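Kindly inspect what follows.
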Amino acid sequence: MNLTLPPKITDRAFSRLNEIGAGKQSKALRIAVEGGGCSGFQYEIKLDDISETDWVSEKDGESVVIDSISLPFLENSIIDFSEELIGAKFTIDNPNAKTSCGCGTSFSI
């Protein structure tokens, strides 16, 4: 799949996948965009199997995958892992999102 600017996965995100042993379980971090949420679209982030139609980014035995329908919504995004006082989570900095809500998982284009 050709993108002008594919999503970038940070070293911190790959490191966290390694810490939880995703690759050793033959799982990848799946990032998907679905309709819904308080702003129109929402992210789904979970460990999942890799499909042959997925866009895949790999590093050090770990993988991040995005399905072909979600991929255009995530073009030029940065997928990271953040640890804060309120908890640790994977984050998405999406330049395509015009607005987002306070939860950080819902956005509009």
About this structure: The mean pLDDT is 87.
